[in-house]
Design a protein that fits this description.
The chain folds into three domains: 3-157 and 284-352, 3-Layer(bba) Sandwich (FAD/NAD(P)-binding domain), CATH 3.50.50.60; 171-281, FAD/NAD(P)-binding domain (3-Layer(bba) Sandwich); 356-469, 2-Layer Sandwich (Enolase-like, domain 1), CATH 3.30.390. It has helices at 14-25, 47-52, 54-73, 88-112, 174-177, 194-205, 225-238, 331-345, 374-379, 395-400, 428-440, 445-449, 459-469, and strands at residues 3-10, 30-34, 116-119, 121-127, 133-138, 143-152, 156-158, 171-172, 186-190, 209-213, 241-243, 247-252, 258-263, 269-274, 276-279, 283-285, 318-320, 359-361, 366-371, 384-390, 406-412, 418-425. The protein is globular. Strand 12 and strand 13 form a beta hairpin. The N and C termini lie far apart (71 Å). The chain is an alpha/beta fold. The relative contact order is 0.12. The chain binds flavin-adenine dinucleotide and 1,4-dihydronicotinamide adenine dinucleotide (NAI). 1,4-dihydronicotinamide adenine dinucleotide binds next to helix 6 and strand 18.
Length: 476
């Protein structure tokens, strides 16, 4: 016997579980199917983000940052430690506990909102005459669901290098990178993107010699050039080794470690021998097991589900959100799309403003931005004014002992509307929210400059950068 629902969500990551909750809040009878299994074979809701992404990476970043502070910065505060050591197994256990709290929290939220949860792989069986779709759930208890509306949120998987599949022992995806059992002496990372920098930082802080090989000739091409330059300087000073413009030709894991053969920027052949290799060269959309052919769901040449600006697929009543569709692969983008789709199904006007989705890289210094970069404004031929304020001149940053970086404002030359805000420095991840709010309300840099910011706070650097647009900083 099949079970009927108004809305069936396939995937319980940030795109899926949030869409399910919002749809339930709007009065629909909702089911959410998710296949992720914990180590006991039970459900582990939250998708990539909770299990092998945002949450565990931030847990390890926190632990390793504490270690680095204890090893190198506590002395500045008069705190001395002897016999400092790192219990990697305990750090990983703590990370696993944080993940489990989030898994359980999401399961509770689904129950609280009366969303029916099905643990297993969901696949399209057929379109139902008169509207809707039949979906099979393969799992411990196989089920057939019938849905009037379907929201697909099946996420993404790590992309492997050709000829070097992930076995998560020596060649690691984000999954293996988050559960290395002991600090490797030498760690290689392919790709200096977000995962490479965050994971490379974790293991460098714990004592690994980390070398990152990047194909592009420049560092963090998506970030503002000034920010990328400042961050690169800081990472190199910390001891991260970065090489750009490389072309990997071979990855050999047949020996004790991994040997990467590559052509360097000059075209000369080089080899890098490491104990472990993290490959973080981007992610691919995941439609494994979804059986899109059964209903004629359209994918593009890269395997992404084709959607319009409203997340509608080519099929009536079928929507797709998050990493499995175009746009940045970010948890908060997936969530926003999930909410908007649920509201559209309810006949409301759900909206996602893609121009003000913030980016954060949780390294030290943190990197965060929203809106356009200076190089984008130049390419778009937009006349702009720039203002920048260094954390070196911020009292709170000095008290924290972390004065790396700056806040940078870009505003329209005529109207003063904020077009982009770029931060590299302490707590950039939190500071960026003010800029997102300001841009959502179409604020000018003068609006921020005129607002009272608490003293002493890092946010004063934001105000000062806004003042700098008009060349009237007060503390620099
Ligand atoms: P996912 O989170 O991938 O969830 C998809 C879910 O669907 C999974 O549980 C999967 O098992 C399930 N599924 C797939 N197919 C089926 C099926 N057929 N039937 C049933 N279930 C199915 N983003 C940020 O914004 N901030 C960060 O700090 C951040 N850190 C990250 C760190 C790492 C190491 C990685 C890898 C990613 C990080 N991301 C971060 C990206 C973020 O994890 C993704 O953008 C986000 O998880 C996408 O959400 P989603 O719901 O689209 O997909
Ligand atoms: P990425 O797209 O951020 O970076 C991949 C890097 O690998 C790029 O610099 C690219 O030029 C390089 N590259 C590609 N092919 C290569 C090759 N053959 N050899 C050498 N370098 C190569 O992808 P990443 O780091 O895998 O992360 C995937 C996504 O996960 C991110 O784009 C982001 O959307 C999400 N994420 C978000 C985080 C956050 O918000 N803090 C943290 C981690 C991941």
């Amino acid at each position: 016997m099949s079970k009927s629902f108004d809305v069936v969500v396939i995937g319980g990551g940030p795109g899926g579980y949030i869409a399910a909750i919002r749809a339930a809040q709007l009065g629909f009878n909702v089911a959410c199917i998710d296949a992720w299994q914990n180590d006991k074979g039970g459900p582990a809701l939250g998708g990539t983000c909770t299990n092998v992404g945002c949450i565990p990476s931030k847990a390890l970043l926190q632990s390793s940052e504490h270690f680095e502070h204890a090893a190198h910065h506590f002395g500045d505060h008069g705190i001395s430690l002897s016999n400092l050591s790192m219990d990697v197994a305990k750090m990983v256990d703590r990370k696993n506990a944080v993940v489990k709290q989030n898994n359980d929290g999401i399961l509770y939220l689904l129950k609280k909102n009366k969303v029916s949860f099905f643990h297993g792989l969901g696949s399209f069986a057929k379109a139902v005459e008169g509207g809707g779709y039949e979906i099979h759930v393969a799992g411990a208890a196989a089920e057939t669901l019938v849905a009037k509306q379907v929201i697909i949120a099946t996420g993404s998987n790590a992309r492997a290098l050709p000829g070097a599949p992930f076995h998560e022992d020596k060649i690691l995806s984000n999954d293996g990178a988050l559960r290395i059992a002991a600090v490797p002496k030498k760690l290689g990372v392919i790709g200096s993107g977000v995962i490479g920098l965050e994971m490379g930082s974790v293991w460098r802080r714990l004592g690994a010699e980390v070398t990152i090989l990047e194909a592009m000739p420049t560092f963090l091409a998506a970030a503002d050039e000034g920010v990328a330059k400042e961050a690169l300087k800081a990472f190199k000073k910390q001891g991260l080794k970065l090489e750009f413009g490389v072309k990997i030709s071979k990855v050999d894991a047949s020996g004790d470690g991994v040997v990467v053969t590559y052509a360097d920027a000059k075209g000369e052949e080089q080899q890098l021998a490491v104990d472990k290799l993290i490959v973080s060269i981007g992610r691919t959309a995941n439609t494994t097991g979804l059986n899109p052919e059964a209903v004629g769901l359209k994918l593009d040449e890269r395997g992404l589900i084709v959607v319009d600006g409203d997340c509608k697929t080519n099929l009536p009543g079928v929507w797709a959100v998050g990493d499995v569709v175009r746009g940045p692969m970010l948890a908060h983008k997936a969530e926003e799309e999930g909410v908007a789709v649920a509201e559209r199904i309810a006949g409301q006007h759900g909206h996602v403003d893609f121009s003000i989705i913030p980016w954060v890289i949780y390294t030290s210094p943190e990197i965060a931005w929203v809106g356009r970069t200076e190089q984008q404004l130049k390419a778009d031929g937009v006349a702009y004014k720039a203002g920048q304020f260094p954390f070196l001149a911020n009292g709170r940053a000095r008290a924290l002992g972390d004065t790396t970086g700056f806040v940078k404002f870009l505003a329209d030359a005529k109207t003063d509307e904020i077009l982009g805000v770029h931060i590299v420095g302490p707590m950039a991840s939190e500071l960026i929210s003010e800029a997102v709010v300001a841009m959502a309300f179409k604020a000018s840099s003068e609006d921020i400059a005129r607002i009272c910011h608490a003293h002493p706070s890092l946010s004063e650097a934001t105000k000062e950068a806004a003042l700098a647009v008009d060349k009237r900083t007060l503390n620099f």
